Amino acid sequence: MKEMQTKLVIIGGGPAGMAAAVSAYDAGLRDIVILERDSKLGGILTQCIHNGFGLHRFGEELTGPEYAARYIEMVEARADGIRVYTSTTVTSLTQDKVVTAMNREVGMFRIQAGAIVLAMGCRERPRGALSIPGHRPSGIYTAGSAQKFVNLEGLMPGREVVILGSGDIGLIMARRMTLEGAKVKCVCELMPYSGGLIRNIEQCLNDFGIPLKLSHTVTQIHGKERLEGVTISKVDERRAPIAGTEEYIPCDTLLLSCGLIPENELTRKAGIEMDPVTGGAKVNGERETSVSGIFSAGNVLHVHDLVDYVSEEASLAGLSAVRYLEGQNDMPLDIKVKADGFVRYTVPQSVRRAGDVKVYFRVADVLRNAEVTVTVDGEGVYRKRHIKLAPGEMECVALKGEWLDGAKEVVVCAKGEERK
Amino acid sequence: MVEYLVIGAGVVGGMVARALCRYTNSVAIVEKCSDVAMGATRANSAIVHAGFDCKVGTLKAKLNVMGSKMMPEVARALGVKYNPCGSLVVGFSDEDRATLEELKVRGETNGVEGLVILDRAGVLALEENIGDDVTCALYAPTGAIICPYELAIAAVGCAMDNGAELHLGFEVARVTPVMEGTRVSFYEVESRDGRRIETQTVINCAGVYADEVYQTLEGEKTMDFSIHPRVGEYLLLDKEYGKTVSRTIFRCPSKMGKGILVTPTVDGNLLLGPTAVDTVDKSDTQVTPEGIAKVTKQATEQVKVNLRGAVITSFAGLRAVGSTGDFIIDYGHERFINVAGIESPGLSASPAIAEYVIELLKKKIGRGAFVVRTEYTPNYLSLAWLFHEMTDDEKCAVIAKNSAFANMICRCEEITEGEIVAAIHREPKPHDVDGIKRRTRASMGRCQGGFCVPVIVGILARELGVPEEEITKFGGNSYMLVGKTKTGEEAQK
Amino acid sequence: MKRELTCIVCPRGCALTVEYEVVDGKVNVTQVSGNGCKRGITYAEAECVAPVRTITTTVRTTADHVVAVKTAAPIPKEKMMEVMEVLARVRVEEPVRIGDTIVEDILGTGVNVVATANI
């Protein structure tokens, strides 16, 4: 087996991996390898042909492939320091930073890395996890699989569609399938609110008269070979279907958009400490995991709402990796960052390096007249009112370095009026 | 004209065909579905039972114990994963304990070795995640687990390597005896789509349809039975939960029924189920809310496991329950053998069932006709399976010859393009997405095909030389796609 | 008159309240509130007077692949399906680079359809 040595190995060549590579290069590092399993860089962006990307990062509205292309150009312009292996799958990762991978050109190979950035992205929650009663006919796809078929292969998964889950991919695919001539019957959402961006409900559903049925779920699959229809039902506050509310909807396709899960198989196998709430690794402010020199950024760390923030976070991780490689390991702090009230989680979960640090979080419910507060060792340092906070959106508070000196614990709390 | 025609390519049909091939290459297997292992074999508990459960003196008891003793060697020869993990029947009360004592005596009478009754401390020493209310258990060290469809694929493949022919989509419409005087000269077996095969002997291994196939046989019959389907629902858990228990955990049978089991699978998942609901529809494999609730409730009593987020798929299978209560393996006509009512422990008994059928044939035809062919091989090799078990160095050697083995397709189960292509071209050949899944595990992991199914559809289309729109999930009308985008047809709507 | 809108200009999705009057069949926006930025006002005015949308989709190449495209600017909302019908019949030669014009002045809207991916 071929053996190599590289200062920085980045696993994943999507928006996170590319941003980490570019920022590491710009910090002076010239020995960077990106391992990407697809045949080209860009990750999931290449199939996200809709627009809405890049307003923060590039100040203009781009489609997914265009956003990816900006970073691909940056990576290519730095070819003297960034080597890219596409169609390459990483099969294992160890705490000693040995990465085993394979591709058709080299076969299996091993890289001893000085530092590693994990940027594997996320995947969709599958249907089985939902255990919908009925047979197991064809015509049931995750929204992302359908997106790949339609946008990259030019193939139609079906003509009459019901979508379960109002995550952004589901909303985007409602419009996409409609534009391609399919009839989207409705989007069902188990929760009393949508997990997607409000503007996507407007431009992907309302523009086409597609009903969004909140507090509804699919309770029966019909059809033995190809899907023939679904029964949908209203659910109560405990999300249990309410008898008597069943409605049969004929359709040949059911798309599932039931959330995203960070793809951390390698991370877990390497024994890196995980956060059960985010499904990603626990990190400090540098985006460094429990294993020193292994960093994590982007959707593999926690599911982001906008790719712009993925790039931002991964740039930080790339820079942190360079500092680590340069031996700048002066980490004077040991502060825990904790979630309280309606805050589900925070990233990072701890702060080690002195200086300003941004803390990202999501709330557990739709809150109106909300207030976000930050306390450091019990003392309030930050307070901001929000008209509305929603689980679909990632929020951020910027902690000032001066608050953190000598601190032990930072608590981020959100309170507000819940939905009725 | 073939000497033998086996109806049904499940694990029983496959094992019978393989056994017949020891003596002749003139064997045909007909199967109504688009692939092998699509009936009861597709979805069951995947257990090799020790044999304490069967009534003393039944064919079930005899063939179960015999089959479970044969299974390690059969699995080795066929390259099928087999794990002699042992099993526990757990009880929750003194009443259960008395039942376990009965089971122990019954098992010992049936010839099951090593049975021991354990108290709670004994159970805990074996399984730390056993349910809090479990008080006792019957431990059977000879219990084992195996993958039923893997075993059936390998058995059919082995038969085919030895000269047997497989006819898929061959749904038997009629079996007609052609007489020569008062004796049957041969049988003509006709499919619904008009294909005809002549054979000297028929072995009916048609699972839940065995009675219907038998009904199509014209002429005098000597034996009557019926088969009814019993649905069993299962939940399959992520591999993260595969080590929750290391043995099969049965529930002590009670007035409430036989109860479900919790078992590791040979692939490292955790399987919960089955329910047992009698039905009339032989194609009814629906998952129901009641079934899921029952499996969930019982499983979490037997074993401490948090199911939230753990389930990767739920499915249902059918068991072929015979009207006699025992396996029905005998001549139904002059040269027509029924192998029917093969419900649990049918998988465990399958190698023994095959030998039992051979004995029946020897009695009728004469032992002299059964001479083992020198060219017969009992083995089955599939590169698709071998690759996965290889060391890194061995994999490198394979990749050096064929770089498709370095192209990962299924991320969750780590299955490469090389394995998928190897499976597509290895008998019995798959033609659809589920066929690939059963042969390689691609798309069977925690993402359930989210990433790889579009790629697998492409590989299948390429290797079979058909457009992607013709690829199905499991034959019939189970098309994956309805057409292309941007054909210009939208404009005409 | 009053109208509630959700701004779709950026992912914030501001809840806009638009006040307008209709004079001689023409809509005249008098006040926009709830917007987080100036683009919200532009959006609200357009949405009440003549709503527009950007279309992102694909076109087929002569090699039977598909390549992502978009309207380089928003087009009238009611023309969306008509634009899709035109694009269903388009066949482009590979290679295609980001920014290449695929269809000029589609349906006389003055807007070009351009490629958003390379193939």
Describe the protein:
The complex is a heterotrimer of chains A (420), B (493) and C (119). Chain A is an alpha/beta fold and 420 residues long. Helix content of chain A is 20%, strand content 36%. Chain A folds into 3 domains: 2-123 and 261-329, 3-Layer(bba) Sandwich (FAD/NAD(P)-binding domain), CATH 3.50.50.60; 126-258, FAD/NAD(P)-binding domain, CATH 3.50.50; 337-418, Immunoglobulin-like (Sandwich). Chain A has helices spanning 15-26, 64-76, 143-153, 168-179, 198-205, 265-269, 307-325, 401-404; strands spanning 2-11, 32-35, 51-53, 62-63, 82-85, 89-93, 98-103, 107-118, 122-124, 140-142, 155-156, 160-164, 183-189, 212-214, 216-222, 229-234, 247-250, 253-256, 260-262, 294-296, 335-341, 343-347, 350-351, 357-363, 367-376, 379-389, 395-399, 409-418. In chain A, the strands form 7 sheets. In chain A, strands 1, 2, 5, 6, 7, 8 and 20 form a 7-stranded mixed sheet that branches. Chain A has a 5-stranded parallel sheet with strand order 10-18-12-13-14. In chain A, helix 1 (15-26) runs parallel beside helix 2. The mean pLDDT of chain A is 94. Chain B is globular and about 65 Å long. In chain B, strands 1, 2, 9, 10, 11, 12, 19 and 20 form an 8-stranded mixed sheet that branches. Chain B has 3 domains: 2-41 and 149-225 and 324-369, FAD/NAD(P)-binding domain; 83-145 and 228-322, 2-Layer Sandwich (D-Amino Acid Oxidase, Chain A, domain 2); 383-492. The longest helix of chain B has 20 residues, at 59-78. With 493 residues, chain B is α+β, with helices and mostly antiparallel strands. Chain C has 2 domains: 2-50; 56-115, CPE0013-like fold (Roll). In chain C, strands 8-5-6-10-9 form a 5-stranded mixed sheet. In chain C, strands 1-2-3 form a 3-stranded antiparallel sheet, with helices on one face. Chain C has a two-stranded antiparallel sheet with strand order 4-7. Chain C is elongated, with a radius of gyration of 17 Å. The mean pLDDT of chain C is 92. At the A-B interface, strand 7, helix 3 and strand 11 of A face helix 7, strand 18, helix 10, helix 13 and strand 23 of B. Strand 11 (155-156) of chain A pairs antiparallel with strand 23 (483-484) of chain B.
